[in-house]
Amino acid sequence: MPKNWALPLCVEQYGVRFRITELDGCAVEDIAGLFLPCLVEDGPKFYDIPEIRFRPHENTFDILAILASLYVRHGLFPMHASGIVMQEQGILCVGPSGTGKSSFARAALAAGLKIVGDDVVLLRCKEGKIELLPWIYSIQEKTEIKQPLFLDPGLFASGVLKAVLFSKIGAASQSSFSRIHASRSLPRLSLQLLWSFNFQEALLQGDLVKQLLTFPSISVLFGKDILKQPDEFFTQLNRALLLAHP
Question: Is the whole-model pTM more than 0.70?
Fold first, then answer.
């Protein structure tokens, strides 16, 4: 990756275009090394797209709000979730802050798996399937797995959704898994989709949630094994998935 990138950077990811005009807390080389976006150093000027000041500590909400609206217009839905790829299939882990989503991603890396993201994942409906895709803000700045600011792009992957996990934190030594009904999944999924700004976007998000409800939903009470014994944790998870979706 060239080291002579300069601001502003024209960024294109999955057909969504925007410019980064200011960076704070990271180097231009880190942005240039991001996974998946195509950075166009001398490309055309896109006057119809937002200019983004990339300041993780100060303007996180503004960045996410602008990007979320842009992506939804292109059929890409940012969700407050983590995602991993296991056996070439995507596992989405949904839950409020502090319920183990980032630990789930850390455990996946420790077990030699690839991740889609640890805090925000993009969902795209395509040919009757739902794809899990990384996006430019897939790793939250504070997470322990994030050293340096952006991880090696080779750690990331996309995958076709197989199941949805709903995360909880427990004190037991072993994690536990239980199948939950779609009616209990509905409000949890809706709450974790990032901002809709108009009625049309809200309808599109509603259609996505309906499709998500057709996938197996599993409640996971994360135990201490998720980080201490990640290989065993994912063995148990795979068994739970086979029971939920033989």
Answer: yes
